[in-house]
Design brief:
about 280 residues; mainly alpha; ABC transporter involved in vitamin B12 uptake, BtuC; two-stranded antiparallel ribbon; 12 helices; about 80% helix; globular
Length: about 280
Amino acid sequence: MNLELWSSLEFFWPQILLGSSFGILLSLIGALLVLRRQIFFGITLSQGVSLAVAISLYFGYDSPLFVPLLSLLILLPLVVFKKSRNKDDEAFLATLFLAFTALSQFLLNLGGNVTNHLMAAYFGDILTSPVSWDMQFFIPFLFALFAYSVLHNRFLSYSFDQDFSIVRGNNPIQLELMYFGLLIIFLSFSIHMFGSYFSMSQLVIPCFALLPWARSIKILYVGTGLISFLATILGFLLSFQSFPWGQEELHLPTTSTIILLLCFFALLSRMLYRSLGR
């Protein structure tokens, strides 16, 4: 290991640790989203969280609790409305997605120094993420993680067999609110630190890559977590290397490298599955 790589690993270890941890967490939560065939709904929620991040940056609210609370305020009514319709309305979700995007762009054009912060919220490099060890961040996050672990089996049962879950006494609206509420909280923390596209990619791509191979939910979880971890770590390592480009040296953007690696692993997995005649 060369000196430059070692020094980069030593300096950026908080981003590596949190980036890989959040990637694995989102990939596991996103597996249920993919199994439910609610991917576009999850992407719309992610864009709504990005709007909440944009609002917090524009008005200068730095509290780690502001973005999750605002995201819940914006998006939980959408969860209730969606459930009451009893079907996925793709046109409605597309309209909301575009509205959230346009509002974020509107804020971007309003404000001076906030422009760089808003661009970071979408495309920002994970190496410059505002990693903080403040307990105001970790206490609500750990509480949400504990709540998800306790409720996971109920979420899983409802995802595979809604009728059986209802017979066992589970309220479908309550389960939806709890699942998507916790998903919104996790996305709020992740998007605030690492950007929207990193978070959305980790949410969807690892499960998409492993879904054809999985014969049990445990295999699916292990596989998605492994792909997320490998792509994140390899993305960091590649971004720490310098590549000759004309008269200069090129450094790859970490976030985009991680996303491209996730896409590469997904396409490779799908192509291999088809080539074996599965």
